[in-house]
Amino acid sequence: MRESTTRLLLGLAREGARALLGGARRGASRRGGAQDDDARGGAGDARGGRTATIPRPGPATTGLPDFDYEPHRDGDPDPGEVVWTWVPYEDDPTRGKDRPVLVLARAGADVVVAQLTSQDHDEDAADEARWGRHWMDIGTGDWDSRRRPSEVRLDRLLRVSPDDVRREGGVLDERIFRAVVARVREVHATM
Length: 191
Prior knowledge:
Number of strands: 7
Order of helices and strands: HEEEEHEEEH
Radius of gyration: 16 Å
Helix content: 10-25%
Structural class: alpha+beta
Shape: globular
Number of helices: 3
Distance between the termini: 12 Å
């Protein structure tokens, strides 16, 4: 079974279980003050004592969500904003890391996000693509205290509850946001 289909099915199963349990939320809101991105202790289970919630992978419907650029610096995650949340590792979704993500769309009460990294994948782009990982440079922004250039992952979209967003990090330029959306559509059309 393809990884994207597996993620979709897992997301649907989790949503069904949540609906049966009355929509009870796991974990607590982690909105907090700004910390240096490397000082969070997000790897593995050492999450600084915070209760973590595993974001539900993938949109809950087939296909891609409607993308719209709507940033509002109001404390809520909006499309076009870079926010911080816990992102599970692909090979072990019970473990993960607190990291910046780009909010791409709303999906019901949740938001659809794509993870960011400061690692440069330009030189290993062919190898990354061979494994189904596609990245795009988006430049620098307020989401990184050291103003390092960032890349957004195009092939792996996650569905996250706004309650699981710890803080806003910045707003992506609309032209760059639209270019990311175009590339996400292009990558997902071939998956």
